[in-house]
Amino acid sequence: MKYFPKFVALAVSVTFPLIASAGQWEGPLNGIVDKVVKQGYESYSISAEALQKSSHEFCSSPSEKNLNLTQQAFKENALDWQQVQWLNFGPVTYFMRYYAFEYWPDKKGVTQRQLRALSQGDPSIMDAPKFWTSASIAVRGLTAIESLLYHPDFDPMNSANHCSLLERVTDHHLESAKAVAQQWQESKAQDWVFDEEGMGFDPEEVALEQFLQQWIEHMSAVKDAKLETPIGYNGRENLKLAEFYRSDLSLQTMQKNLKSYREIYHSGSPSLFDIAKQSNPVVADQLEQQLIENVKLSLQLPNNFFKSDMPQEEKIALAKPLVKSISSSQSYLSSLVTSLGFQIGFNSRDGD
Amino acid sequence: MLSRRAFLALGSAIATTPAWASLLPVGNHGAVYASAYSLNDKEHFFGLFDAQGALLWKAQLPERAHAPVVHPSNAIVGIVARRPGFYIDFFDMTSQQKITRLEPTKDHHFYGHALFTSDGKKLITQENHYPSGQGKTFIREWPSLKVLESYNSNGIGPHEAVFFNDEVLVIANGGQRTHPNNDRIVMNLETMQPNVTYMSLKDGSVLNSFTHDDPSHHQLSIRHLDVNPDGLVALAFQYQGEIWEPVPLVALSHINSNKMEYLTIPEPIRIRFKQYCGSACFDSSGKVLAISTPRGGLIAYWEVESKTFLGIKNCRDVCGLAPSDKAHEFILTSGTGHIIRHNPINNDAALLKKHEEKHWDNHLAQIIT
């Protein structure tokens, strides 16, 4: 997924005195890792397994019922992904897993094209030992599975080739999800930061800093790519750019993301919220209220928000408060973390 | 352009400006380095630091800036506003005062980079004629700043340029059309065509120009470049397409060749670039190339003769690169305030200084004293 943060908030290196000691960031870092990331990937790999099993059952006994069950398993897995989608860090960055889990937005229809080619070829090539490690990311994860289950070009109910492809993609998808979950169970966040030898490097602080940067960037993705772009908030409407639009998950995925933000804020002892309340109580509360507001506003959007039967003007009017609220959340979060001494990116966020 | 009165005053001042070597309290420290930096989103500066990373001088700027421009003989240094840039401030290091501000002509803005000719008599800037989107190369007389020539850059979005020799300029036409009224929104994503152009400074004629061979790479913006003493030009790209696409990010070119030669990067490292190179820089021997990627938090190095990938140095938010006065050695600056010396051949690295409160901006320039 491509993130384009729109706002710029420069880092202000003001070190909060209470957090100057080593291990100061253990609370929020371990809390986020344990509660949001590890548990998130655990759930994700469990639902990926359910999806894989369901696919195999469907293909061995194709029926409307089994198709529906597989589609439901897909939806659960795609929603579990939303819990961890904000963090492109650590195990998921290896072998392009992050982009393979969800190849989106697929503006050029690469997934369909490559799935068609695969379904027309010799299926045994997909059983070769290194096939999936070198396969295109477009056919390795949820975007491909959604296409096989929902795109009119594919008919797994009546095509053995399409169903066989579905089985193989879900097999690989499960393997990747399990691998990431397992690697998180066996490691700490600090293990995944790149060592800057001799630079006064604190892996704990750097890991949390990267988490915070990714969280801020993900807010941009939700606002821009998930909400604004498909409805044509600043241009032409193109609902096909909405996330998982074929499976009608676009609204739910966004709601899930916004709910997960509060978990990030409150995980750990002390949590980021607890620390922020000590150092910057006003902004800490503003962020808390804004995150709640995001959830409320997203839940107010009607179920047909990403559907063509609602006029674009109406969508824009409905989206406006949420766009504003997410932008405010970004500002509060940036302000808060920079006041805590974190660098949220200067050249990396706004270079030329 | 300056008024006659201002010009006379400036000309008089500059005529007496001594050479770099006689200025600045650098002692035996060798080179001095120049870079813009910010303290926060409101306070922006231009600073010079010595080879130990100690700040020697600073001047406040109205807005965030991009790349320094150093006069080759007089102790004069300038800083170019970042795109869309509407000023270049010049400072006389004798008095340590600002001597003049250059603003672009009507309907133009700077792209963040400028350079003096080797005789110090002309200033060259890359500019955007934003009503048309035409890239421009302006040649102005120094110090009057009178426009002598204005050539088409042979493309859109001329970002950085370097001298191939005294008569030929190499321009990185990034390909992206923008308008200052629309922030940095790229108006021609679907049609952009970046190119490298070797331009004669005598008449603005194009001596050679080429883009990527693969048409699907038309969004691979050619942004930064450097040239070594052998005339080899290093090119650093920024890809405007999808983040997962396996595009090349670094290349070499030469005036006598009609194509770029992409440098290989091990895939796990290439992925870390996030399709974005920040600066390109040869070491003082011209044998080692460094490319920074602030989004990837690293500098990657190549031995250029054999095109061998040498490895990386991790450094968060790193972007500024300059050669030190030693072969194979570089000075690196980052948005986290670090100033680092690094030699990728013997892997000798030292943190020279961490300026906790400073965010060093995109580009770093070496001033030989």
Q: Could you please describe the fold and organization of this structure?
A:
The complex is a heterodimer of chains A (352) and B (369). By secondary structure, chain A is mainly alpha-helical. Helix content of chain A is 61%, strand content 0%. Chain A is built from 12 helices and no strands. Chain A has helices at 26-60, 64-84, 97-101, 110-120, 131-134, 142-150, 160-185, 203-231, 250-266, 272-279, 281-300, 312-339. The longest helix of chain A has 35 residues, at 26-60. With 369 residues, chain B is mainly beta. Chain B has 2 helices and 28 strands. Chain B has helices at 4-15, 267-272; strands at 32-38, 44-50, 55-61, 65-70, 76-81, 88-92, 97-102, 108-116, 122-129, 134-141, 147-152, 158-165, 168-173, 195-200, 206-210, 220-227, 233-239, 250-253, 261-262, 279-282, 288-293, 298-303, 308-314, 318-323, 330-334, 338-343, 348-354, 359-367. Chain B has a 4-stranded antiparallel β-sheet with strand order 3-2-1-28, with no helix packed on it. In chain B, strands 4-5-6-7 form a 4-stranded antiparallel β-sheet, with no helix packed on it. A 4-stranded antiparallel β-sheet of chain B has the order 8-9-10-11, with no helix packed on it. In chain B, strand 10 and strand 11 (147-152) form a beta hairpin. The model of chain B has no long low-confidence stretch (mean pLDDT 93). The chains are: A mainly alpha (352), B mainly beta (369). At the A-B interface, loops of A face strand 27 and strand 28 of B.
